[in-house]
């Protein structure tokens, strides 16, 4: 396919500076595309277009049903081009094509979900204390939205932002991760085809410290919605204070997965592996902190290790590949350093802990699935997000201890409990301080359930009907039908 460029005010344009960036396949480091490298100037042009489009009132006053139709059309076009999009996502991220196909189904589902919600909130009448008056509460679009996404689920994360923003009548500027922009570019083509009006949705490519920083600090942006790391999230919060922007932050996680001895053993082993090593651990909700009841700890770890040794690492385009590479050389170096830290801290390396020796994998950013045992909460590897294929295992004796260990984190994105005792499970999840908790499940999400974090995992919620709330302001309209003088003054 021909890769187009940035999309600003309804035109496909290169970077104002003329600069470009090569996009690399993490499996073999081949250049798969060259895209414009925008900067503050491009971001400012896109913000001006989005501002003018919003201030014209055309999109926000388009009937919500009609906006919903356009959002549904985007879903249909994604379904039409699913295979092309899935292959592009795998080229760009290294993940298996099977995973990417699943992502595309989910993405179409997100656009469908918001197309259906677009016209469902007609406001609410509330009781008014004044006779002969009407009080109603309505939701209106926030305005111009800056949207910044990470590289791990490039198009999925973009869809969580694009679909509700469009459905609710906002205008937007999207900045995808500079290393994985390809599927987002393609979806902007589909949005144009679906009939999103000129200026409503703009796409700027480029780095975080240039384009992202401009979106975060520009006074004409009303809301910034960011998914990414906690360090960047804090910078964005600071920058956004310039005009008290509304903020939606989806940050990192260090997610506990509690395994009780009475859980179905084989299922818990299987799902514990899936909960971490899917997409090579590059998932914000990965269950990287395994918390295992002492009586089954050794048997559980042995089963994990045996299974991990058989993982097939390779090209995401090969049918038998189970795990692809990490996203970049820089990220691989970060994961290597994290594992070194675990060894220095005294954790026991049960399996992995290095790059694979397979000659066919040497050009890719591969890292072996890794398990550390004898971990304690005071270790940095138990507290810090590795965002790679690394598990830390802690032991517990009592239910209270398990919950305490699970909550001992600055993060609060997600967590899981495995047990056959449903009362115990409900007791545990009620005390777990996370935005999503699973019982006998891990990592499952769907568009009608809200997603977001407690504590330092973020602010606000995406998906669900909460995603609509994120992109709307609440307005109270009080209408006195029979005004009379008060005669106070
Ligand atoms: P990152 O924070 O490095 O980058 C994310 C985005 O922010 C990129 O588009 C980047 O260009 C941009 N950016 C960087 N510096 C910026 C700045 N100063 N101002 C504005 N924008 C800036 O994160 P990443 O490495 O791309 O992604 C991994 C992180 O994302 C992990 O911490 C992961 O947990 C998190 N994540 C969270 C969720 C969630 O739903 N909570 C989902 C996916 C990923």
TrEMBL record:
<protein>
    <recommendedName>
        <fullName>Betaine-aldehyde dehydrogenase</fullName>
        <ecNumber>1.2.1.8</ecNumber>
    </recommendedName>
</protein>
<dbReference type="Pfam" id="PF00171">
    <property type="entry name" value="Aldedh"/>
</dbReference>
<dbReference type="GO" id="GO:0019285">
    <property type="term" value="P:glycine betaine biosynthetic process from choline"/>
</dbReference>
<dbReference type="InterPro" id="IPR029510">
    <property type="entry name" value="Ald_DH_CS_GLU"/>
</dbReference>
<comment type="similarity">
    <text>Belongs to the aldehyde dehydrogenase family.</text>
</comment>
<keyword id="KW-0520">NAD</keyword>
<feature type="domain" description="Aldehyde dehydrogenase">
    <location>
        <begin position="12"/>
        <end position="477"/>
    </location>
</feature>
<dbReference type="InterPro" id="IPR016162">
    <property type="entry name" value="Ald_DH_N"/>
</dbReference>
<dbReference type="GO" id="GO:0008802">
    <property type="term" value="F:betaine-aldehyde dehydrogenase (NAD+) activity"/>
</dbReference>
<dbReference type="InterPro" id="IPR016160">
    <property type="entry name" value="Ald_DH_CS_CYS"/>
</dbReference>
<comment type="pathway">
    <text>Amine and polyamine biosynthesis; betaine biosynthesis via choline pathway; betaine from betaine aldehyde: step 1/1.</text>
</comment>
<dbReference type="InterPro" id="IPR015590">
    <property type="entry name" value="Aldehyde_DH_dom"/>
</dbReference>
<keyword id="KW-0560">Oxidoreductase</keyword>
<dbReference type="GO" id="GO:0046872">
    <property type="term" value="F:metal ion binding"/>
</dbReference>
<feature type="active site">
    <location>
        <position position="250"/>
    </location>
</feature>
<dbReference type="InterPro" id="IPR011264">
    <property type="entry name" value="BADH"/>
</dbReference>
<dbReference type="InterPro" id="IPR016161">
    <property type="entry name" value="Ald_DH/histidinol_DH"/>
</dbReference>
<dbReference type="InterPro" id="IPR016163">
    <property type="entry name" value="Ald_DH_C"/>
</dbReference>
């Amino acid at each position: 396919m021909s890769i187009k460029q940035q999309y600003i005010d309804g035109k496909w344009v290169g970077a104002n500076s003329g600069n470009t960036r090569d996009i690399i396949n993490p499996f073999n480091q081949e250049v798969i595309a060259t895209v414009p490298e925008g900067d503050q100037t491009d971001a400012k042009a896109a913000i001006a277009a989005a501002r003018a489009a919003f201030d014209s009132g055309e999109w926000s006053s388009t009937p919500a049903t009609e906006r919903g139709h356009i959002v549904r059309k985007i879903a249909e076009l994604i379904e039409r081009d699913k295979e092309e999009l899935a292959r592009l996502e795998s080229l760009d991220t290294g993940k298996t094509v099977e995973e990417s196909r699943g992502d595309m189904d989910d993405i179409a589902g997100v656009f469908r979900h918001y197309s259906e919600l677009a016209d469902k909130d007609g406001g609410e009448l509330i009781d008014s204390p004044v006779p002969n008056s009407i009080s109603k509460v309505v939701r209106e679009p926030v305005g111009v939205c800056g949207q910044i996404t990470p590289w791990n689920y490039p198009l999925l994360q973009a869809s969580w932002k694009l679909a509700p923003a469009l459905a609710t009548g906002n205008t937007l500027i999207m900045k995808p991760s500079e290393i994985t922009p390809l599927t987002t570019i393609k979806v902007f083509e589909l949005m144009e085809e679906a009939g999103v009006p000129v200026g409503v949705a703009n796409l700027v490519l480029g780095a975080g410290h240039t384009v992202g920083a401009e979106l975060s600090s520009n006074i004409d942006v009303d809301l910034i919605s960011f998914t990414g790391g906690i360090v960047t999230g804090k910078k964005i919060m600071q920058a956004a204070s310039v005009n008290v922007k509304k903020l939606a932050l989806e940050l990192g996680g260090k997610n506990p997965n509690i395994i009780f001895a009475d859980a179905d053993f084989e299922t818990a082993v299987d799902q514990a592996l899936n909960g971490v090593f899917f997409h090579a651990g590059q998932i914000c909700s990965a269950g990287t902190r395994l918390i295992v009841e002492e009586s089954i700890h050794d048997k559980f770890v042995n089963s994990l290790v045996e299974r991990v040794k058989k993982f097939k690492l390779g090209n995401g385009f090969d049918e038998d590949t189970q795990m692809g590479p990490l996203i970049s050389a820089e990220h691989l170096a970060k994961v290597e350093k994290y594992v070194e830290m675990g060894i220095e801290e005294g954790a026991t390396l049960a399996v992995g802990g290095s790059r694979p020796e397979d000659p066919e994998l040497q050009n890719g950013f591969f890292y072996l699935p890794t398990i550390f045992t004898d971990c304690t909460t005071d270790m940095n590897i138990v507290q810090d997000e590795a965002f790679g294929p690394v598990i830390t295992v802690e032991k517990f004796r009592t239910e209270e201890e398990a919950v305490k260990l699970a909550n001992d984190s600055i993060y609060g994105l997600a967590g899981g409990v495995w047990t056959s005792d449903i009362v115990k499970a409900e007791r545990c999840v009620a005390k777990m301080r996370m935005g999503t908790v699973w019982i006998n499940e891990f990592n499952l999400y769907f568009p009608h359930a809200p997603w977001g974090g407690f504590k330092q995992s973020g602010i606000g919620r995406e998906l669900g009907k909460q995603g609509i709330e994120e992109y709307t302001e609440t307005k109270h309209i009080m209408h006195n039908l029979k005004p009379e003088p008060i005669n106070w003054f």
